[in-house]
Recover the amino acids of this structure.
């Protein structure tokens, strides 16, 4: 089963949450990354995301498998949008279930951090008054 | 007798295309140097990762006819 997905369209959270649930899962933590209207002091109108889809999906699966080994969690999933996104749109969702809340929170945080640094997805910011720019942060950032 | 090179994000904008067919290069480093010169890529190879046939690869990975090469600029998902 694919637990990491790239989605070219807006997606529903309800079925994603549902797949995390189970009688052994006393905790369910999730993270929503949304498009905000500013970055580094500049007004942002929206974002365009693109991915190297085949590699993004396989690297995403590797991250989720690593999370399941590192943390005492039951299930983990992640979906990342590509395409044009408007302010407030959901860009990325991470969900984790576990017996207890500690590992659920920890794994959720770890997964989003790894996704941001390892998965081949790029964002281009849109501005009101000038051409958009691709963000290529320093690997340590 | 060629390889396919994929471009993403700022590299795609600079190249003006998403991919191109090129003769089998000597090495990934030599290929990137040639392309950086041709397309005006500003990112140095030291800032990039590279993938061959859909998997992350080392810069000294061997290449073969028909393989698919992608230069991966610093990522910014999330």
């Amino acid at each position: 089963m694919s637990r990491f997905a790239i989605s070219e369209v807006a997606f529903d959270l309800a079925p994603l949450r549902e797949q995390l649930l189970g009688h052994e899962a006393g905790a369910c933590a999730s993270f929503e990354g949304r498009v905000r209207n500013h970055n580094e002091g500049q007004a942002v109108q929206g974002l365009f995301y693109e991915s190297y889809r085949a590699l993004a999906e396989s690297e995403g699966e590797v991250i989720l498998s690593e999370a399941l080994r590192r943390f005492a969690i039951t299930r983990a999933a992640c979906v990342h949008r590509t395409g044009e996104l408007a302010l407030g749109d959901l860009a990325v969702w991470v969900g984790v279930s576990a017996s207890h809340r500690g590992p659920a929170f920890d794994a959720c945080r770890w997964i989003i951090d790894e996704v941001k640094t390892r998965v081949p997805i790029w964002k281009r910011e849109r501005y009101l008054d000038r051409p958009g720019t691709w963000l290529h942060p320093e690997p340590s950032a | 007798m060629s390889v396919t090179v994929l471009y993403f994000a700022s590299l795609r904008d600079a190249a003006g295309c998403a991919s191109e067919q090129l003769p089998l290069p000597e090495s990934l480093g030599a290929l990137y140097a040639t392309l950086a010169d041709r397309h005006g890529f500003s990112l140095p190879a030291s800032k990039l990762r590279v993938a061959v046939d859909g998997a992350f690869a080392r810069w000294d990975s061997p290449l073969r006819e028909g393989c698919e090469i992608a230069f991966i600029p610093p990522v910014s998902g999330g």
In short: The longest strand of chain B covers residues 2-6. Strands of chain B lie at 2-6, 19-23, 49-52, 55-57, 68-72. The mean pLDDT of chain B is 97.
